[in-house]
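=== RUN LOG ===
request id: a7f3
mode: sequence -> structure
chains: 1
length: 215
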Amino acid sequence: MAERPAAGDPIPQQCAIIELHLAELRQLFNAIDPSPFDQRDLDPRAEEFIVGWSRDHSADAKLALVVYLDRPAGAADEATILRDAIHEFFRQRAVGTRRNLRELFRRGRTSLVIGLAFLAGSIAVGTRVTDYLPNSGVADVLREGFLIGGWVAMWRPLEIFLYDWWPIRAEARLFDRLSTMPVRLVYSADAGLEAWRLDWPAAAASPARSQPRTS
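=== RESULT ===
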């Protein structure tokens, strides 16, 4: 069986390959995004598919994306444009995720100060109640209640600094890997020879750059 024509980055050995099968390249991008194609967001379903498959592999696995396209090759640089658009999309996702992580830590520090102040106040109030009502069961109950309330106030900052931050950092690192992965296009020779003219980025390319490959 003849090898299908392809373009784009070579795929290194021992890469975890994410495979997509599309009728048209524009299916990969968000149709309602008004940005130029090379700055357009990925379609949410395509993003979910790529990210989901990448999470199935180990955190240190090298990733690569292979897009099987049901049309012949179009503009000579469409594989490069596609790769750059995908890399830029995930680079922005990494930047946004790290921004969210910084915001989480900011809220965590604020919550920690409030929680510590409330805990200290609860302990102080509980101690005053015990001093005011010595040897009283009611005082013991109130003191324990204030102490428990103070520790409950510490729940949110402890959750942030113990558990919430590391999945966000792992997601940012995943986006970093996706923003540098090789991207390769594999074409079908079965579609009409002029199908490339209806698809992105061939339709957006200049006439001088839009001639289909002959080899």
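=== NOTES ===
Confidence is low (pLDDT under 50) at residues 205-215.
The longest strand covers residues 16-22.
=== END ===
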